């Protein structure tokens, strides 16, 4: 950064806990042309002050790089933010009442989330007639809090042609009254009978989803977000928003591998590396090799301890995966692959080795998403191949209750191995997987440090990280995984001035205080855009 001219902005009077080894009690940052010109002692930074420099006196906040979310779902999280919220309702009629006077979206369907009949008096499942009383002939679908049941209106039942004679589909159940009539509650796979009728979100809806998520990001001090599975409509929505200057944060889009035509088109166009004014990237294609441990869908090398007939399921054949990875890299893209169980982590790395054999050193980014269970041998291979593990500390905390049952004690010690990953010189990149888990990075930082939710005790503490490392996982290490190393995420001189002033010192407060922290001001490229 050329500092011969004036600084555009100086923010002073802030704690700089990541400065040097020990941090700085009171310091400043100077911004020139949207980039960090100097960070450090007040007097050194104030040397860059000229009459035209805007000086903001913060008096006591703590300045950190903006948090970066390296794996979450822009469309899905956005949907939950704009859809009807039924969480906490105490009766079916109260829940149905949430749909009253809600304008009908272009899809023609009202969609709600979060009801839980265990909170209702008598704990009875709700009935279609309660929705009909509020919504009349509008098709409505309301997902249970766990996503494993749907409560629908009579109009939705009729559109799906569900009546007394409709058999329960495999893996699902249609709840019925004494007379055998469908009540409007559909369990597991029976939900598909209705869900398949709902049109995919339009570009316009995707725009509102993206905007809702970006707003939530700023409230959590997040200045960059990776969408771990972008569809056509979302890509088009982000294009339109970017054209109108409506992308306040950095968005890293990963096209969904199973959308074959979309991916083929993007591969022909080539990758985007932080273009559109530095706000948008599309550099990696996202593939899925398995499911999750909770539902025993993660592919394991040995059977589940609590269900010996199950080893999970691989979702791609070896040949298909090798071919897909190679095709993406040949087109100049990197690859991000969802692999949770140890068998799928092994397969993921086999694929990356295949690409290396075919192409030699290609320099494209390779990421394993989640990497929840990995052997020493595979961690060594990951390090040798330069693979970035993109991990979600909150899953480690949330899964604590049952992970040992699923895996047995011995294997459970090979789960969420952040310390082992650091010891091999790799930088785990953190995120939340929202809407699976809450977006809030502070919960992830607590989980990375304590391997527990706030107020609980953790497990396999030998794999825990320090507070500082946990914060790096959401800032400078995350920037590497987003292709932003040297561009943003660390507040090195010359990097984009994306930073947050917090109301308390995230490095030193205890975890109970940490989760109460609020961003006082969020700056991106040196512009105060939130708080
Ligand atoms: Zn995900």
What can you tell me about this protein's structure?
This protein has 531 residues and is of the alpha/beta class. It is built from 19 helices and 24 strands. Strands 7-8-9-10-12-11 form a six-stranded mixed beta sheet, sandwiched between helices. Helix 10 (318-330) crosses helix 11 (342-359). The longest helix has 18 residues, at 342-359. The two termini are 27 Å apart. Zinc ion binds next to loops. Zinc ion (ZN) binds next to loops.
Number of H- or I-type helical stretches:
19
What is the typical, i.e. mean, pLDDT?
A: 95
Q: Based on CA inertia axes, which overall geometry fits?
A: globular
Biggest pleated sheet: 6 strands, mixed
Radius of gyration: 24 Å
DSSP strand tally: 24
Please report the distance between the alpha carbons of the first and last residues.
Answer: 27 Å
Which strand order do you get reading across the main beta sheet? 7-8-9-10-12-11
From the helix content, strand content and strand pairing, which structural class follows?
Answer: alpha/beta
Low-confidence stretches: none
Strand content: 15-25%
Helix content: 25-40%
Summarize the entry for a quick read.
This protein is of the alpha/beta class and 531 residues long. The protein has 19 helices and 24 strands.
């Amino acid at each position: 950064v050329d500092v011969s001219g004036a600084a555009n902005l100086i923010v002073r009077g802030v704690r700089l806990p990541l400065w040097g080894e020990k941090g700085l009690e009171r310091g400043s940052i100077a911004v020139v042309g949207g980039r960090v010109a100097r960070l450090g002692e007040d007097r050194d930074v104030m040397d860059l002050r000229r009459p035209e420099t805007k000086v903001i006196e913060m008096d006591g906040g703590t300045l950190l790089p903006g948090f970066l979310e390296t794996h979450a779902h822009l469309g899905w999280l956005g949907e939950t933010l704009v859809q009807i919220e039924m969480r906490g309702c105490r009766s079916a009629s109260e829940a149905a009442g949430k749909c009253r006077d809600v304008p009908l979206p272009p899809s023609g369907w009202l969609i709600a989330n979060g009801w839980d009949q265990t909170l209702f008096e008598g704990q009875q499942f709700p009935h279609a007639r309660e929705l009909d009383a509020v919504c009349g002939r509008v098709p409505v679908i309301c997902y249970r809090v766990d996503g494993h049941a749907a409560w629908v209106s009579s109009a939705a039942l009729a559109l799906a042609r569900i009546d007394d004679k409709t058999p329960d589909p495999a893996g699902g159940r249609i709840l019925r009254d004494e007379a055998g009539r469908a009540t409007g509650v559909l369990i597991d796979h029976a939900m598909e009978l209705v869900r398949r009728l709902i049109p995919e979100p339009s570009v316009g809806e995707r725009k509102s989803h993206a905007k809702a998520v970006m707003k939530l990001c700023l409230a959590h001090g997040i200045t960059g977000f990776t969408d771990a599975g972008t569809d056509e409509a979302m890509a088009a929505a982000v294009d339109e928003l970017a054209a109108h200057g409506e992308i306040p944060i950095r968005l890293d889009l990963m096209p969904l591998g199973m959308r074959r035509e979309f991916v083929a088109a993007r591969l022909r166009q080539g990758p985007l590396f932080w273009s559109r004014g530095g706000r948008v990237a599309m550099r990696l294609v996202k593939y899925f090799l398995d499911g999750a441990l909770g539902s025993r869908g993660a592919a394991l090398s040995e059977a589940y301890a609590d269900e010996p007939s199950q080893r999970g399921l691989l979702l791609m054949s070896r040949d298909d995966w090798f071919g897909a990875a190679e095709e993406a890299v040949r087109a100049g893209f990197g690859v991000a692959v969802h692999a949770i169980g140890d068998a799928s982590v092994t397969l993921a790395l086999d694929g990356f080795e295949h690409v290396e054999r075919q192409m030699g050193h290609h320099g494209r980014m390779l990421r394993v998403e989640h990497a929840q269970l990995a052997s020493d041998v595979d961690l060594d291979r990951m390090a040798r191949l330069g693979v970035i593990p993109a991990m979600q500390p909150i899953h480690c905390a949330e899964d604590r209750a049952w992970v040992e049952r699923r895996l047995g004690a011995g294997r459970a010690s090979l789960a969420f191995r952040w310390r082992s990953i650091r010891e091999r010189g790799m930088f785990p990149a953190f995120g939340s997987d929202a809407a699976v888990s809450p977006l809030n990075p502070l919960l992830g930082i607590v989980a990375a440090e304590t391997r527990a939710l706030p107020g609980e005790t953790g497990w396999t503490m030998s794999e825990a990280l320090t507070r500082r490392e946990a914060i790096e996982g959401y800032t400078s290490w995350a920037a590497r995984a987003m292709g932003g190393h040297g561009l943003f995420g660390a507040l090195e001189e010359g990097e984009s001035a994306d930073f947050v002033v917090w109301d308390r010192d995230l490095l030193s407060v205890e975890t109970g205080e940490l989760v109460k922290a609020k961003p006082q001001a969020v700056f991106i490229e040196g512009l105060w855009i939130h708080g």
